[in-house]
Amino acid sequence: MSSFKSKYQEELIANAAYIGTPGKGILAADESTGTIGKRLASISVENVETNRRALRELLFTTPGAFECLSGVILFEETLYQKTASGKPFAELLKEGGVLPGIKVDKGTVEIAGTNGETTTQGLDGLGQRCQKYYEAGARFAKWRAVLKIGPNEPSELAIHENAYGLARYAVICQENGLVPIVEPEILVDGPHDINKCAAVTERVLAACYKALNDHHVLLEGTLLKPNMVTPGSESPKVTPEVIAQYTIRALQRTVPAAVPAIVFLSGGQSEEEATLNLNAMNKLQVKKPWSLSFSFGRALQQSTLKAWSGKDENVKKAQDAFIARCKANSQATLGTYKGDATLSEGASESLHVKDYKY
Amino acid sequence: MSHFKGKYHDELIANAAYIGTPGKGILAADESTGTIGKRLASINVENVESNRRALRELLFTAPGALQYLSGVILFEETLYQSTASGKPFVELLKEAGVLPGIKVDKGTVELAGTDGETTTQGLDGLGQRCAKYYEAGARFAKWRAVLKIGPNEPSELSIHENAYGLARYAVICQENGLVPIVEPEILVDGPHDIHKCAAVTERVLAACYKALNDHHVLLEGTLLKPNMVTPGSKSAKVSPQVVAEHTVRALQRTVPAAVPAVVFLSGGQSEEEASVNLNAINQVKGKKPWSLSFSFGRALQQSTLKAWGGKEENVKKAQEALLVRAKANSEATLGTYKGNSQLGEGASESLHVENYKY
């Protein structure tokens, strides 16, 4: 085997497969303190620890939500938080059959000599941090690499740095019992068409899997979190069926069958758009040797946030909005979504923020 | 798309898919003049053009055999030969629904500074040669890269050279209408165990697919011809099920689903061994998003050659021997081979020749 032998081998394989259970997906609730501050500001809520805690409790105690989720990605602060009545979030999730995950990267920095391209930090002491998170109950991790499309981008340097950073992160996670989510996000920003996005996505994913192989990563114990293949944000829209075809073809050309599941990022798509696109992919009758699911942040929480607005009396309304999106996406992983989820305020709203930084 | 846009796009995809038709596979009859000379010598037949022609006519006119073949790889001389009654071989094959293929490499040369590792020649003027072969009726090509396992082998240099040579050959073929068979053979020679073979195979295949992606090759219009994953020739044998599991797992970890078919080389296995292993591979439960078939030379012709002995009066007997092996391998691609085919003289004989050169 080209993978190293981790003592967590069987567990990694089982957890990765579990996350890909049809009908389930991931809630990405790992917004850093700065980023969640922007979300809270947009609904006029103060960015203090209690409010951040209250928001996550709202999400995690939504009746029925856990049936639709196999994992939740947390920010470090949240991993150690509890419900108002004192139950640790990690325990709450585990009891609900939901694996806790942890964001382990430390954001992006610019690569000198490029035109605003970035690499991701977080490798220093990563092994010890992963170990600590495993003890706290985490069973998977996430690291976001970011690439952009431009006249000369992504450059070979940016692709290489991000691919090899992801691979190094991935093997360190596996050494410490965490299933690594490999996330090479290609930003949607730009006037390029879907063909360009497809070409770049295929090039980036090929580089990622070469890097993972070089680093002896156990593919059966990983997940992939890619962008869907779409036109750029400044280019005309296409149908979900076209997005589905281009996306699956890109994955067929690059992602080995050993990878158990692909959990798409929503990247600025509206809640409804993201769900419809995921649904179209799962309806397509072509070779798809990995399950196709979601790892949505904004596209699961947007209308929930708006409904909540920080007010206790709105919690039920907010939870109703949340379960509607959870169920919709659960159906989308089965290709059975009819587009009839009660559209809450904001569900069709584009969540695109130019050059998005978490 | 990361592949180049060629005028033969649809035809390449259709031909590659056809070669992978369940129940069919490839007869590798592309032995160079020197190599076929050794085969003829072993049955005391003179190595002259008429004998080489007669042997291939024997194979291509064997009653009932062609239905089990989707392709035959030819050496250049054979591409332009005809039956005794004057029908071009290419026409004979096409009428029977068998695609003619052509060996286009020019053998291996040693890499200076390595311990006997090689790279493959043949890129000079390859485009024009492919165009010529296409006109003559060829629809696919083959190029054999060779790697070996040793204390320090295969080296990163030899993996890189062979992978990038294969990729350059592949895209030139596609520019000229030929489906390239990508063949990175890792020789079975050595005392290593199956785990070592698996690790090397995964490393080599990962490098190949990175190179193919870099060179903008259309994966849907290619075929892969790898070694099965087995113990080294000086190591204890294992069961077909063990060979099958390790082989399928190596492919799951490296070969994109876009590749329509994997056509294994027999690499010195006996006729029966090769069929039984291929059968076990097709019985493995697990994700196999490519058809799994054969591209056998020695493992299809050994008992046929022995039965023929160069004598006219033996042609019928020899053709029956070929039919037995062709049918056995056809069943093996369906996982239905019972291992009961009439063993022709030599069917169980190992065909291993140390450090085999075509």
Automatic annotation (TrEMBL), chain A:
E.C. number: 4.1.2.13
Pathway stated in the Swiss-Prot or TrEMBL entry: Carbohydrate degradation; glycolysis; D-glyceraldehyde 3-phosphate and glycerone phosphate from D-glucose: step 4/4
GO cellular component terms given for this protein: cytoplasm
PANTHER family named among the record's database cross-references: FRUCTOSE-BISPHOSPHATE ALDOLASE (PTHR11627)
The reaction(s) this protein catalyses: beta-D-fructose 1,6-bisphosphate = D-glyceraldehyde 3-phosphate + dihydroxyacetone phosphate
NCBIfam families: FrucBisAld_I (NF033379)
Protein name from the UniProt record: Fructose-bisphosphate aldolase
GO molecular function: fructose-bisphosphate aldolase activity
Pfam families: Glycolytic
Species the sequence originates in: Sphenostylis stenocarpa
Keyword Cytoplasm: yes
Enzymatic class: lyase
First-listed, main subcellular location of the protein, grouped into a coarse class: cytoplasm
Keywords: Cytoplasm, Glycolysis, Lyase, Schiff base
Any one of the GO BP annotations: glycolytic process
UniProtKB/TrEMBL annotation, chain B:
GO terms under cellular component: cytoplasm
Class of this enzyme: lyase
Keyword Nucleus carried by entry: no
InterPro entries: Aldolase_I_AS, Aldolase_TIM, FBA_I
Gene Ontology biological-process entries: glycolytic process
Entries under CDD domains matching the protein: FBP_aldolase_I_a
Lineage: superkingdom: Eukaryota
Pathway connected to this protein: Carbohydrate degradation; glycolysis; D-glyceraldehyde 3-phosphate and glycerone phosphate from D-glucose: step 4/4
Gene3D superfamilies registered for this protein in UniProt: Aldolase class I
Family named by the database record: Belongs to the class I fructose-bisphosphate aldolase family.
Designated name of the protein: Fructose-bisphosphate aldolase
Organism: Sphenostylis stenocarpa
Lineage: Eukaryota, Viridiplantae, Streptophyta, Embryophyta, Tracheophyta
